[in-house]
Design brief:
Distance between the termini: 18 Å
CATH superfamily of the largest domain: Ribonuclease Z/Hydroxyacylglutathione hydrolase-like
CATH architecture of the largest domain: 4-Layer Sandwich
Number of strands: 12
Strand content: 15-25%
Number of domains: 2
Helix content: 25-40%
Order of helices and strands: EHHEHHEEEEEHEHHHEHHEEE
Largest sheet: 7 strands, mixed
């Protein structure tokens, strides 16, 4: 119920599919009286309108059942905050509210357009979240000296194994998809090199592909990236960091759920 806003990097289904439930839980679990703001590049209005339409009957049911105490109609659904894409490699200011500054950067996830990264600065501590992207000079440039780089990563060696198995089994669909996805993501080594070049404080890998479900997969996923940049964490759902103001500390509070 305490979530104040959502920032979308792009509109692939795996990045938006939980929006409806997130907005509903935020609304009903805390009696929120204002809709959930959703920020994103051009297209976010269409995404938000679609979810609001899909949940329009549900919001009526919940208000009729629980009333204004738990489900005030003013708090239902989401409201889109759409912005134009930043030009070139520049970082574009998005929000500057007291001690919080949020900026946005265009990234390359072709053929997916638009796609962006976000940089958050609060009380002198900075995090950049790459969104889905290939290894990017823009991300490297705008990560210079930041505290925490949160960067996506796909392990080509593991995905190639999946592709070879699919080809051997005659599964043309999986073979096609696993061949297609390699060239629009960064590898762990590429993300590590960006972190090293930018001299960031810590690198958090996220959007891990493929999922690491077996013992020993972490090493295969990294494939030498740990030697390029040793201050890293392989992200899990629920991982939590604290970066106290006025210090250089980066504290891992929770490894995951």
């Amino acid at each position: 119920g305490s979530i104040e806003a959502v920032f979308l990097s792009h509109f692939h289904s795996d990045h938006i599919d939980g929006l409806g439930e997130l907005a509903t839980i935020r609304w009903v679990s805390a009696g929120n009286t204002a809709a959930l703001p959703v920020y994103g590049p051009t297209g976010v209005q269409k995404v938000v309108d679609g979810f609001n339409l899909a949940y329009s009957l549900d919001t009526v049911y919940r208000h009729d059942h629980h009333g204004d105490t738990a489900a005030p109609l003013s708090g239902k659904g989401m409201i889109a905050n759409e912005f134009a894409m930043p030009e070139g490699k520049r970082m574009m200011p998005l929000l500057d509210n007291d001690e919080l500054k949020i900026e946005v950067l265009a990234v390359d996830h072709s053929p997916v357009e638009p796609a962006v990264a976000y940089r958050f600065t609060y009380k002198g501590r900075t995090t950049l979240i790459s969104g889905d992207t290939v290894a990017s000079e823009s991300v490297r440039q705008h990560s210079q000296g930041i505290d925490l780089l949160v960067h996506e990563a796909l392990a080509p060696n593991l995905v190639n194994m999946m592709n070879a198995a699919a080809v051997k089994m005659g599964n043309r669909v999986v073979a096609k998809v696993t061949a297609d996805i390699i060239d629009y993501h960064a590898s762990p080594i590429e993300a590590a090199q960006i972190a090293k070049d930018a001299e960031v404080g810590h690198l958090l890998y996220y959007h891990i592909m493929p999922p690491l479900v077996l013992p020993g997969q972490d090493s295969l996923f990294l494939n030498g990236a740990e030697e390029v940049f040793p201050n890293y964490t392989i992200g899990q759902d629920g991982v939590l960091f604290s970066m106290p103001a006025g210090s250089n500390e980066i504290i891992k509070v929770k490894k995951g759920l």
